Amino acid sequence: MIKCMATDMDGTLLNGKMEVSEENRRAVKAAQAEGIEVVVATGRSYVEARYALDQADIHCPIICANGAEVRDVSGEVMNHFFIEKETAARIFQMLKQIGLYFEIHTAKGTLTDDYDKALDIMVNIFLTAHSEIPQDQIREAAKIRFTKGLLQLVDSYEEVIYDEDTAVYKFLAFSFEKEKLDEAKKQLALIQGLAISSSGSENIEITHSDAQKGIALEQFIKEKGITLEETMAIGDNFNDVSMLERVGFPVAMGNANPEVKELCNYVTATNDENGVAAAIERLIGVKNHENFS
């Protein structure tokens, strides 16, 4: 019997428009009404995750930044793992030398030192899935990350890296040049105490080795008196692997990376076909009731 459901956000709970579909929203609420412990496990910061969930009126605990931070339903921090300052400085210099654009997730929010580059990256990623939408329209939508405070502009990353009062949770580096990402992975592998993953072919995510979705989820359900065998996890990419490998009911999205699908006992529909709702109905047995508004 499934007692807990953990779901990734981008490429999973969220559709290609970066929204929770009405079908997924109703299904999640129906599961919660049946007593299922629902937890979101995402690479996003808490603020950026909450923004999307608030739009769907979904309230649940959140595993943020791939497990670097865990928050309860009220937003209180339950646990966190940050990258040591010396290690963060080393990562910073290495990514800069390779020529990668990157953002830094901290306890104070997600930061960038390049406004235009941040917009360009988001536009290019969105265009790969929605080439029919005008680029200017996508760019205006991308600006919401700044206007809503989901992404903050800083003058220099140095002031963040070396600030003793700012905990660095994650580096998120982007590139459409595979060679640069491969070089970064190669060099990062030489640094002890890190977890290297990705949530898309155009990025790499760098956290403390204990900051992984699977580790955070295991600790979370232990405190709830729930076993891994009673837990379902849904995901689509490599930063979901640590939780998919642990749970009794691993579910891959229809749009998941083929290697991720091979790890799972179940494959649901794509994120644009309400795959989370389909998985909830199939494995938990909860119908997508229309009375959940």
Largest sheet: 8 strands, mixed
Protein structure class: alpha/beta
Low-pLDDT parts are 289-293
Count of alpha/pi helices? 13
| CATH architecture assignment of the largest domain | 3-Layer(aba) Sandwich
- The name of the CATH topology of the largest domain is Rossmann fold
Please tell me the total number of domains. Answer: 2
The CATH homologous superfamily of the largest domain is named HAD superfamily/HAD-like
**Major sheet: arrangement of strands:** 5-4-3-2-1-12-13-14
Can you give a write-up of this model?
The protein has 293 residues and is an alpha/beta fold. The chain has two domains: 4-80 and 212-284, Rossmann fold; 85-208, Hypothetical Protein, Haloacid Dehalogenase-like Hydrolase, Chain: A, domain 2 (2-Layer Sandwich), CATH 3.30.1240. It contains 13 helices and 14 strands. It has helices at 9-13, 22-33, 46-55, 85-98, 115-129, 135-142, 144-147, 158-161, 178-188, 213-224, 241-244, 258-263, 275-284, and strands at 4-7, 37-41, 62-64, 69-71, 77-80, 101-106, 109-112, 152-153, 168-174, 194-197, 203-208, 231-235, 249-252, 266-267. α12 (258-263) links the parallel β13 (249-252) and β14 (266-267). The protein is globular. It starts with a strand and ends in a 9-residue tail after the last helix. Mean pLDDT is 93; it is low at 289-293.
